[in-house]
Amino acid sequence: QLHINHGQHVENGQYAYLVYAGKEKPKKAFKDLPLKVLENSTDIQAVSWGDHYIGAAFYNPKEVLKVDGAEISVSAPCALLLEKNEDKWHLTVTDAEMNKNLRSIQVRTTLDISNDQSEKDGKWNVIEVPMFQGKLCGKPATVELIMK
User: Fold this and answer.
1) Distance separating alpha carbons of residues 101 and 95, to the nearest angstrom
2) Beta-bridge partner residues of 106
3) Which of 18, 57, 72, 147 could form a disulfide with 65 if both were Cys (CB 3.0 to 4.6 A apart)?
């Protein structure tokens, strides 16, 4: 259980924490891991791990995440993880609200990645990620992307 005392009258307070469940001691596990906080606001919380991982929680889908000169936006509140593996990326998206009427979440990015179902819209690569329905509503959905 984790508890952070925010205080009674905090204004513009900021903090960040990392949850680690590995077997190594955290100092050793994160010694050479280039963890970078990309954004920590009420709209988006996002981090990157080197060139291979981008993780973000989008609370406000109207906002755009900036990542080393690239941008990512989404069509609905969600959590997403981009994982790079050699010449492919895996994009995993979870509907944060478990909205039973949400059929898909659109991820728009200027990163040079795509799949068979993605479309180009100006500077954006638009990836439609189908959401699980029924009993599986809220389950993370993953699509494979290739680098152009």
Assistant:
1) 11
2) 128
3) 72
- The residue whose two tokens read 């905090």 is 10
pLDDT digits (tens, 9 = 90+) for 104-139: 999 999 998 888 888 999 999 999 999 999 999 999
User: For 28, what's the count of Cα atoms within 13 Å in the CB-facing half-sphere?
Assistant: 4
Q: What is the pTM of this model?
A: 0.82
Q: How far apart are CA 62 and CA 58, in angstroms?
A: 9
Beta strand pairing call for 53-58 and 119-121: unpaired
Which H or E element spans position 29? helix 26-29
Taking the C-alpha atoms of residue 21 and residue 57, their distance in angstroms, rounded to an integer, is 20
